[in-house]
Amino acid sequence: MENSLSDRQKMILDQVRARGQVGIEELSQIHDVSPQTIRRDVNELCATGVLRRVHGGVELPGSENLLYTSRRMMNESAKRAIGGVFAELIPSGASLAVSIGTTPEIAIQSLSARSDLMVVTNNLNIALIASDRADWSVRIPGGAVRPGDRDVLGPQVEAFFARYQVDFGVFGVGGVSEDGSLLDFTEEEVAARMAILRNCRRSVLLLDHTKFGRSAHVRGGHLRDLDVVICDRAIPAHHATALISRGAQLVIAEEQA
């Protein structure tokens, strides 16, 4: 099959294989062609089953998540833009429960100017970042560490988050379905995220635009449950309307910049 691909299509396939997911606009810039040309290439690749379209981009098929180190590099500039907006929301002296995921990790890095934070997390990457600050306090649960992801999941994690009532619950998701349901890859990931949602005064979802329409097979929570949604680009209009109509705060990092 790959012998029938154009040179550009082969390069697109290699780039998505290396990173897991790439945006149409980024591919357009890399290959110095119009987004319409990239879409034609991508549509042909998707028709063969080697790639799958997501909102604003293309990814590898299948519902398994990528390795943490690969996910950290995906859409990194978008995640840092989200982190910059997130930092404006968090005052010194706040308490935060923070979930697994690369976008929350990068968002916590953006809080370097804040003092006296308490960070409650099952994400060891975040715990290490926070523990470098002498004026921050860090709480983590016990349990087995997932190889590669460097996080802890399980019933004890749900009980751990339930012991705290924090100012901000901060989390990402694996995907958002067309009906606004929040999706992740395992039941344990969803259970930990829902425990954070139940035990915070203000919930904050951090996600880049590629999560809309992205497949993940475990459902838990809905956009309507959230207080704040921060995304790098404009989200699908029906989701934006639903959030704004119920009084949630929707912040688009691209517009803030």
TrEMBL record:
Gene3D superfamilies: 4-hydroxybutyrate coenzyme like domains, Winged helix-like DNA-binding domain superfamily/Winged helix DNA-binding domain. The keyword Transcription regulation applies. Residues 5-60 form the HTH deoR-type domain. It comes from the Bacteria. SMART domains: DeoRC (SM01134), HTH_DEOR (SM00420). Keywords: DNA-binding, Repressor, Transcription, Transcription regulation. Pfam families: DeoRC (PF00455), HTH_DeoR (PF08220). This is DeoR family transcriptional regulator. It comes from Thioclava marina.
